[in-house]
Amino acid sequence: MYFYIKAIHIIFVVSWMAGLFYAVRLFIYHTEAQDKPDPDKRILTTEYERIERKLWNIIATPAMILTLIAGIWMVGLDNGLMQQSWLVIKLCFVVGLIGYHLKCQSIMDDMRNGIFKWTSFQLRLWNEVATIFLFAIVFLAVLKNAVSWIYGLLGLVAFAMIILSAVKIYRNYRLKNKL
Known about the structure:
Radius of gyration: 19 Å
Number of strands: 0
């Protein structure tokens, strides 16, 4: 039974992450649509709000809930898991990812109310935060105690720096070529 629940857990993690990645991409386009002239701005805003709402309510949030239920169920089936330090660290990153999800909900609610606090560049950086969480969670789940936490942390910091540098390089490329 444990491995069936684990498979379900993985499927919903993938769905949740897909929802988060796509939602923030939509936020970027929604924000950029505000610079368009009417009626384009109005039409695009209405459509982005519709797509964001459906993505959030049909995919991202239900996938998060089902991920958490399956994860809790796995721990219930194997009580020894909570004694493993890698899982405790992983759960800290999961809590961070839940916070990320809730912040995305807040950003979406603000945009629906006509409040655009984030630039498209800031949202591109924000989108990479989910990648960093995913990287940390997957490596912890796969490698477990095979790597010391210090090397893992250094690897995560290096990965984050590479990702953030890539976003800045792409921004400069876009500005130079006006994409």
